[in-house]
Amino acid sequence: MNIKTIHNVYFIGIGGIGMSALARYFKFVGKNVGGYDRVSTEITQGLEEAGIEVTFKDDVKKVSPEFLDPVNTLVVYTPAIPGDNVLYNYFVEKEFRISKRAEVLGQITESSFCYAVAGTHGKTTTSAILTHVLRETGTPLTAFLGGISENLNSNFLLEGDKITVTEADEFDRSFLHLSPDIACITSIDADHLDIYGDKAEMERTFHAFAKKVKPGGKLVVRYGLPLKGITYGMEEEADYAIESVKIESGSYLFDIRMREELVAGVRFDKPGKHNLLNALAAFAMAVEGGASPREAADALAGFKGVKRRFSYQLKTDALVYVDDYAHHPTEINAVYQAVREMYPGKKVLAVFQPHLFSRTRDFMDEFAESLSQFDEVVLLDIYPAREEPIEDVTSGRLLDKIDNKNKQLLSKKELLPLMETTDAGVVLTLGAGDIGMEVNKIREVLSQRS
Fold this sequence. Notes:
- It is an enzyme of class 6 (ligase).
- By secondary structure, the chain is of the alpha/beta class.
- Helix content is 32%, strand content 25%.
């Protein structure tokens, strides 16, 4: 399939963060773009404002006629759509050209110099930092991000077609469609066990991704992972290591030792040791790609963050409100570490919406342990996404396992009254579901309080 000869591109699941970036790409290069998703969101509204047709009913009659031409239309879908999706089955039956998002992304990036960031945690932030650093050091590039970069106010950038930055998503083994020149693996924790079955199979697949690096390319890996490559970490044995960390006015100040060279006086504003490591990974990738170490280090100070990744919604002396996409126990632990480091002694309320029945089942005890660390915990019902309920897997069962006297299960409509009365000095909303839709309302109530 030659993407250049395709005129129409139709997306099933266009509201997904990765799908929407691809949709923006095709619109930018002059294709006729449309798509379907279940509900209207900020992402789909942004696509419509960009001139992309979006429908919210799984009905062929709602699709514009030009997209029903099998000769001139490419259909792109996300593996997260259910098997009974009417549109998907129609396009299959009518023998349209149909590709997964990852396959299309692989074709777009294969002719460029490709940076790809993989890992069960940190890939969105790391790829956004890398995009920022490359851009600030004068590199024209295209970027496909899995979150909204606050520097770009977008999940997509097209300022040059010779270099690309993309996330390498492990879900459904999607990243095996990529062939990067420089790849990074930030972490290999067990996740997506509905796809992989067990952690051993997941590790085997990450090894397979590592082998996808082009001949002569480079693999950057977190120190301690069972992979051979250029290492980064807090450990002095790493090829790229962070040293002499201090906190001043809510920012990290530190040095980076890269083999025998020291880059001193680096500043980075995003809290948490996990974000320090994300910044170091992006720095290492940029330098291995030819960026000046000093210029790359200086660029880190200007990174604003990624929406819903330790995203400050309110920050006063009396009250702090942070929203984060954390949906895995390791990510919740990282948020906890960052909050305790930045705000020692303050009472912390964590509102968590579990994401997927299968993930909640597979990590029930780990979730309970992570959430028990907070001073007060509120659970919402499980966000199902693509899944049907699983017997005896509920937020109520998770709540019972949390070792904390200050815990409760609430509906979303009960959150605002809670925010009016809480005495917490730090409020967190955590999760990858639709809890993000509540953020503006929560911020407004807390702002009135503060």
